[in-house]
Amino acid sequence: MASHPDFVNYVAEQLREAGAIRSRKMFGEYGLYCDDVFFAVICDDQFFVKITPRGEAAFPDLPKAPPYEGTKDSLLVEDVEDRERMTGLVRVTCEALRSRHQKKRRNDHAL
């Protein structure tokens, strides 16, 4: 079952304080970006955030589940009404993903 654009727009609106949020249709579902960092997917009207060590440590009570069969687990955010919590998770996650990407680029240039 595909996600509804209204749900995707609602989640993006809830996250507006985390940065510039945009969604992109991917494989019949949606990918989410914050300041051009791919950090989450919405599948079957459920919001899944990539797992990072910092995100996991800051939000240990969030359940983990694969967005769809055959993928790695992500953090499943069931309460999309909690704007403050979601914003915090996205900020921590994107910061970790950005620094991971920068380290990888530095290591690639060192070769």
From TrEMBL:
InterPro entries: TfoX_N. SUPFAM superfamilies: YgaC/TfoX-N like (SSF159894). Pfam families: TfoX_N. It comes from the Bacteria. Residues 13-74 form the TfoX N-terminal domain. This is Competence-specific transcriptional regulator.
